[in-house]
Amino acid sequence: MHSAAIVGTGLIGTSVALALRAGGIVTHLVDADPAAARTAEALGAGTTERPDGVVDLAVLAVPPTQVAPVLASLQKDGVARFYTDVAGVKALPGREAEALGCDLASMVGGHPLAGGERSGPLTARADLFEGRPWVLVPSEATSTAALNCALELVASCGATSVLLDAEAHDRAMALVSHAPHLLCSLAAARLVDVDQSVLRLARHGLRDFTRLAGGSPALWADVLAANAGPVAAVLEAFAADVLEAACSLRELARSRGDTDVRVRGGDRLSTSLERGVAGRSGIPGPYGVPEPAHPAVEVDVGDSRGELARLFADVAAVGCDIEDLDLEHSTGRRVGRVRVFVVRGRAHHLAGELRLRGWEVTGPPSYPVGGFCDR
Amino acid sequence: MHSAAIVGTGLIGTSVALALRAGGIVTHLVDADPAAARTAEALGAGTTERPDGVVDLAVLAVPPTQVAPVLASLQKDGVARFYTDVAGVKALPGREAEALGCDLASMVGGHPLAGGERSGPLTARADLFEGRPWVLVPSEATSTAALNCALELVASCGATSVLLDAEAHDRAMALVSHAPHLLCSLAAARLVDVDQSVLRLARHGLRDFTRLAGGSPALWADVLAANAGPVAAVLEAFAADVLEAACSLRELARSRGDTDVRVRGGDRLSTSLERGVAGRSGIPGPYGVPEPAHPAVEVDVGDSRGELARLFADVAAVGCDIEDLDLEHSTGRRVGRVRVFVVRGRAHHLAGELRLRGWEVTGPPSYPVGGFCDR
User: Fold this and answer.
1) What fold does the segment set B296-363 form as a domain?
2) CB–CB contact A246 B269 (8 Å)
């Protein structure tokens, strides 16, 4: 690949352009809003000048419902040898492209799993995709040459290619991303009219629960609309679970005194809660593998400025790398309790070393045995 | 208050005992499991010896469904002058205490809002309640003397008393704590049988979403059973929202080509998503006030050991206190992007200072103006 056209200079498009440019590829930037393209140009993502001839690859970084019409238009103008996109939904653009009579041999649908809540070119980074999965959904019609070009794109961005069936991708995204986002939004929306006197009783966990309810509503509405069927299926299944739990609770509320009903209902609840613990432990942690049980070293950090810095300096001095962090704190206190995640097997050692350095480590014990820990 | 009996030496009971003891109050520890009481004793929470006479206050730190029977038993033995509890549900214990013929004048229901996922005496801390709200639900029958004793307890633990009606408390807890916990568990439970090939496509946000799905299933089952009615009501309302959203999505899926339906459905979705953003911003942040929009300084942190320590040392040197932290990272990278929350109004200053020190600060701009920021 020597040249590329980036169509749509939002977060993803601009980041792709920055990554390609860092690899010496000439990038031509296009956006429906010329100011956005000029912004990306000013950030060093490429040039807004039209390419002289046919570019090797056109990357469509537009919302899912715009992929097919934009593809048709670019192919009509013969802009590139090959085409790919980065939309979070794959089946609908593919179907619409076929319906519009696009050339399917030169097109590979794609979806880099990176980005998060931010949007727009100003937050773009060349290394946004480093180490991330990048799904490719070649159809039966896709040529090997087109697929190889897409594989080269993914490698240039430092990501890992993952080949998937388009429908399988969409169902997976519905489950692990789209539906959770919408569920979070619905939950957070329920809090809109709630009085502060009630909200102040909320604990830190509620902010975590609704953290996904951020991000551009317009972009997310487009993604959800484009993956409507699979997302609806997840929502309906979840609503059924919720109503079943509500039923158990209603039965419990009515059963005051009836021990059998109470025990059965309590057991059903406990089972749901236990499955919840199990389900959570399967979610990949920082290294893409399930988070081990009790991986964190918990340290109490005081209010004085610089405490966190001293803590992490000590962690580094002990020779541990910090993989993840959690902060817990009470209203009116800064910081408070810090959970430091280190490589499995090092937690006890780090806990012991920090205790020797005078830190108040609440867990785990310095030695991995049961019984009293050295407090 | 000179003496207290702590009945139930789990996380909360032991923490209360530690706090009271630090204030010079004699604490007598009792637990259905004598080993648990001895553990708390070994941690310095008090003595397992029976009190000589009547203690001033008995604190019932037992699950909600056990409060009334334990209260009846303690009152029969004339253990204390006044009684309070710490269960997360208030209406049911009150009703059951009345039904059992307990003396309601000497009893004040209470609920300290602290603790989180951990349980058991080993994780107890004297300052667990510092700065936290502590709800008290005096009934019409509660004597002023009993209430004053409870207020003294709360003050001794460094918490802030909040007087509430018992039913209002339970409805509030259902909304901001109990239902979210159960919803998280149900969501996480759906992930149990999902293949790793799908889970690896999940992003960091999914772990946040299911973070509440931790904690002791047995304890939570008891809390949920004791607040069954209000929690069921929240779940039913939420399920209705979810099914309505699924309906909109199904309509969108069917409406390919019908622009009106698509626009209406898309608008309904956007409205839900926007309400989600609004709802989230109302949730109290570290200082108990709603989190300001874009409060965080975002810094890219490299892989080298000690980077985090250097970053926080620089933040301290600039004269900023860290109020909260967020870490984002890609699979295969440690740390990555750190969001540092500082006092509102200082973010731009900190961003500028960190840039001068060579940090790669992705936001906000050094000066709070629109347009190009100095990268």
Assistant:
1) Alpha-Beta Plaits (3.30.70)
2) no
